[in-house]
Design a protein that fits this description.
The complex is a heterodimer of chains A (about 110) and B (about 120). Chain A is mostly beta strands and about 110 residues long. Helix content of chain A is about 0%, strand content about 45%. Chain A has strands at about 10, 20-25, 35-40, 45-50, 65-70, 70-75, 85-95, 95-100, 105-110. In chain A, strands 1, 3, 4, 7, 8 and 9 form a six-stranded mixed sheet that branches. Chain A has a three-stranded antiparallel sheet with strand order 2-6-5, with no helix packed on it. Chain A starts with 8 loop residues before the first strand and ends with a strand. By secondary structure, chain B is mainly β. Chain B is globular, with a radius of gyration of 14 Å. Chain B starts with a strand and ends with a strand. Classes of the chains: A mainly beta (about 110), B mainly beta (about 120). Chains A and B meet through strand 7 and strand 8 of A and strand 5 and strand 10 of B.
C-alpha cells in the first residue's frame, strides 16, 4: 500500500482535459514539494513536474501541477493519444524520512 | 545529455546478494552536487525508492531496506553501485538508477536509466 493515494485509472477523450489527484498527509505532501512522473509503456519514468508546479525544460505547458494542503493535482489539457501512460506523484515523507511514490494512475485517451 | 546505464545479472538465487552497477555518461558524477539514486519498480508497477549516494560516498537509504543494502561510488569509472543481500522473491523488480537534484527538499529526479529486470528465483 502506497503512502500517497492516486486513482487507479482515469480516462478522457482527445482534446479534453483531465486531472489526476494524489492524496497524502501532513508528514508528506502537507510539508514537502511534490513531483510528477510520466511512464510510457516499456520505458523509464520521466519527470513532468517538480516543486509542485514547475516544468522541466521541454515539457509543454499542457501539463500543470498544484498542491493544496495534503493533496496534489496533475492537470493535462488538450489530451493526445501519446499521453496514454502511467502517472506517478512523489514527495518526501518526514516520518520516517524517505522518498515515497503514489501507486500510479493509468491514463487512457479514448 | 546525461545518460545512465544499469548492468548486472538478471537472475539471482534466493538468499544471495544482488549486485548492480550504473555507468554515467555525459557528465562527471562528481559535478553539480547531484544524488545518485536507485529506485525499483515491482511487476505490479509500484515504485519504491531504495536510496542514494553522493560522490563523496555519503549515503541515505530507505529505512525499510537499510539493513540489507550498501551503495558505493567509483568516481574514476564514473559509476555507482548497489548491493542488496539476502534477497527473496519479493525483491524481483525492475531496478533503475537515476539522478536526483542537489536540493535536499525536492524529489526532482531528472535522469533515469532504462532499467534492468532482476528476477529472484532458484
Amino acid at each position: 500500500q502506497s503512502v500517497l493515494t492516486q486513482p487507479p485509472s482515469v480516462s478522457a477523450a482527445p482534446g479534453q482535459k483531465v486531472t489526476i489527484s494524489c492524496s497524502g498527509g501532513d508528514s508528506n505532501i502537507g510539508n514537502n514539494y511534490v513531483s510528477w512522473y510520466q511512464q510510457l509503456p516499456g520505458t523509464a519514468p520521466k519527470l513532468l513536474i517538480y516543486d509542485n508546479n514547475k516544468r522541466p525544460s521541454g515539457i509543454p505547458d499542457r501539463f500543470s501541477g498544484s498542491r493544496s494542503g495534503t493533496s496534489a493535482t496533475l492537470g493535462i489539457t488538450e489530451l493526445q493519444t501519446g499521453d496514454e501512460a502511467d502517472y506517478y506523484c512523489a514527495t518526501w515523507d518526514n516520518s520516517p524520512r524517505l522518498i515515497v511514490f503514489g501507486g500510479g494512475t493509468k491514463l487512457t485517451v479514448l | 545529455q546525461v545518460q545512465l546505464q544499469e548492468s548486472g545479472p538478471g537472475l539471482v538465487k534466493p538468499s544471495q546478494t544482488l549486485s548492480l552497477s550504473c555507468t554515467v555518461s555525459g557528465d562527471s558524477i562528481t559535478s553539480g552536487g547531484y544524488y545518485w539514486s536507485w529506485i525499483r519498480q515491482y511487476p505490479g508497477k509500484g515504485l519504491e525508492w531504495i536510496g542514494y549516494i553522493y560522490y563523496t560516498g555519503s549515503t541515505y537509504y530507505n529505512p525499510s531496506l537499510k539493513s540489507r543494502i550498501a551503495m558505493s561510488v567509483d568516481t574514476s569509472r564514473n559509476q555507482f553501485s548497489l548491493k542488496m543481500s539476502s534477497v527473496t522473491v519479493a525483491d524481483t523488480a525492475v531496478y533503475y538508477c537515476a539522478r536526483k537534484s542537489p536540493a535536499a527538499y525536492t524529489v526532482n529526479i531528472d535522469y533515469w536509466g532504462q532499467g534492468i529486470l532482476v528476477t529472484v528465483s532458484s
